[in-house]
Amino acid sequence: MTGVLDGLGAGLPVLAAPMAGGAGGPELVRAAAQAGGLGFLAAGYKTAEALAAQIREVRATTSRFGVNLFAPNPVPVDTDELAAYAAAIQGEGTPYGLDLTAVPVTEDDDDWDRKVELLTGDPVPLVSFTFGIPDSATVQRFRRAGSLTVQTVTDAAEARAATEAGVDALVVQAASAGGHSGTLTPDRLPADFALPELLASVRSASALPLLAAGGIATPDAVRDVFAAGAVAAVVGTVLLRSEESGASPPHRAALADPARRETVLTRAFTGRPARALRNRFVEEYDAIAPAGYPAVHHLTGPLRKAATAAGDPELVHLWAGTGFRQATREPAGDILRRLASGL
């Protein structure tokens, strides 16, 4: 890696993406560091205390890692639409003893202020932001604390706003990425540009170093994003079946299932655009799912948890990027080194 990332000491320019919800935990972050690269702890859906515990766990073996934060950018939900959606999916919850119509409307900021206090008081090498752009004063707090700051963007306009906020680098995320899109306008689906094309568009809007993310699953894809001007590739889906992944058994099995042929962008599970393997829940409920994050996430959470425990992939958020066929069952370090082998 060159330029702004040199100080992190990561010689392998293929990084392990943050994957909230358990898939990307301390084991995967350590494996990325041991391979010569860097991984991100996902702070999303954790309390500040839980995040602090995971940071301590990672620091026991490496000082080279980052933390990804969900920056506030709420999508207010229409309560009538949410109630109608709860009623529509209630039939899926009944076999599990769930009353989804009784789930309270929850609008939270993912413990943002306390996580900012934690990470500025006890800094980590790198902090990245997604979903929203922190104000410039908050960005400067992280920089004064000694953390490199990186913002996820999905188009040129977002890149200009992030540059004005004062971050050090940008993660350019294409719509081909698995899991949630970092779009700042989650009321509409992100445009489907090829990642090299998106990198060129963002480069026209910002001179900051660019990290590329979205559908990267082969050495050729890594070479393509470097040729397009990226200083690093960030991969997630291709690591989900690795030995160090925290992905659930149904999720792992679905990624390897030859009957799963397609990924789709959907807000059915969380009210915010996210790419997942097509399953029955997406087929039946995507068209009627309201925009509304995190309210829809909290509504469907008990159902997804119960279905995961029961091994039922048809009701689970099977996050996956377009390169999911390349996800393999082997050590994460081997996957990262192979992806970088053609550079």
UniProtKB/TrEMBL annotation:
Gene3D superfamilies: Aldolase class I. SUPFAM superfamilies: Inosine monophosphate dehydrogenase (IMPDH) (SSF51412). The keyword RNA-binding does not apply. InterPro entries: Aldolase_TIM (IPR013785), Dihydroorotate_DH_CS (IPR001295), NMO (IPR004136). One of its GO terms (molecular function) is monooxygenase activity. It catalyses: 3 propionate 3-nitronate + 3 O2 + H2O = 3 3-oxopropanoate + 2 nitrate + nitrite + H2O2 + 3 H(+). Its cofactor is FMN. It comes from the Bacteria. The keyword Kinase does not apply. Keywords: Detoxification, Flavoprotein, FMN, Monooxygenase, Oxidoreductase. Belongs to the nitronate monooxygenase family. NMO class I subfamily. This is Propionate 3-nitronate monooxygenase. It comes from Nocardioides jiangsuensis.
